[in-house]
Amino acid sequence: MRNIKLTVAYEGTDFRGWQIQPGQPTIQGTLTEVVRQLTQDSVTLQGAGRTDAGVHAWGQAVSFKTQSGLAPEELQRGCNALLPPSIRVRHAEEVGPNFHARWDARAKTYTYSIYRGPVVPPFRWRYVLHVSQELDFAAMTQAARCFEGELDFTSFSASTGSEEDDRERTMVRTIFRSELIDLSSRAARAATAANAPAEFAGLPFGGQAFSEEWVFVIRGRSFLRYMVRKIAGTILHVGRGNIAASDIPGLLEKRDRRCSGPTAPPQGLCLQSIEYPDPTDSLQSASPGTRP
Questions:
Q1: Which of 76, 104, 132 is at the close of a domain?
Q2: 57-66, pLDDT tens digit by residue?
Q3: Inside any domain, residue 263
């Protein structure tokens, strides 16, 4: 039995999120059908992150086990020939038998894009939240930093829909980076740059649209449901003057979902990358470890 890892990008507008839902178009469902067709195996795809309806990805990681003899590059070509253009397999590789896309992830990076100009370019409207009103960038920058560290994010999460699951799961998450970036100056410099910063991979960095965009970048070990969108909505709440950045530590301490700002819409959110201790999970991997 071989273990395969895919790096997948998708435009999430027309999908009901990552996870399979009966009768609904989903990324996992669409990709599973194609992989099963290619491998002739009843494979189960494991994704590193369960993105919501309308959310995009550039670096989603997927793993599955198969008896197929297809080489990784053949799987990649086959997937991209059969998948809709809104889903692309960027890379395929064989990994060790113990690798699991979700449980082995050590960090995830998301971006949330806010378009600041009066008119959103037609090639960006699916990927940004349009906010043309005056916002306090300095206050929002300060607010973003308040989410760094090992914190209880109950106030910035949504219920799983099960009271029992809500009681049993831990709400503490570790955030390594939480930063709001003004791309107006970066866009001009990027016009001649060979590569965009890593957090903007897959986006048209250096294009005219970026001169009017702010991007919230957040990198953490793992995230709760709606957590990034609730944080982004709260940072916007600060920018509009509805609350102060200094209020955020108190909101975290309350552990009350009613305390956060509004949940930001999904289209501005993108899962940029997933990090692992060893991207290839060496084929000489040791015996299976304990999964969380």
A1: 104
A2: 999 999 999 9
A3: yes
174 and 250 both lie in a single domain:
yes
Amino acid at 270: C
DSSP annotation of 202? T
Entry pTM: 0.88
Residue 2's H or E segment, with its range, is: strand 2-10
Please give the C-alpha separations between residue 228 and each of 118, 131, 177, 180, in angstroms, as whole numbers: 25, 18, 12, 13
- The sign one gets for the Cα dihedral 251, 255, 150, 261 is negative
User: Each residue of 170-193: pLDDT tens digit?
Assistant: 899 999 999 999 987 665 455 545
Is residue 264 domain-shared with residue 124, that is, in the same domain? yes
Provide the domain count of the chain: 2
- Sequence length of the chain is 292
Q: Are residues 99 and 125 in the same domain?
A: no
DSSP 95-137: E-TT--TTTT--EEEEEEEEE-SSS--TTTTTS-EE--S---H
Q: Are 148 and 247 in contact (CB under 8 A)?
A: no
Catalytic member of 14, 52, 136, 182: 52
Beta strands at 87-95 and 56-66: parallel, antiparallel or unpaired: unpaired
Task: Give the tokens for residue 123.
Answer: 């090639």
| 58 and 170 both lie in a single domain | no
- Does residue 182 have an active-site annotation? no
First to last CA, the chain: 23
Among 7, 269, 219, 19, smallest CA distance to 106 is for 219
Domain ranges, residue 21: 2-104
Give one DSSP letter per residue of 135-182, joined into a string. Answer: --HHHHHHHHHTT-EEEE-GGG----S-HHHHHHS--EEEEEEEEEEE
CATH number at residue 62: 3.30.70.580
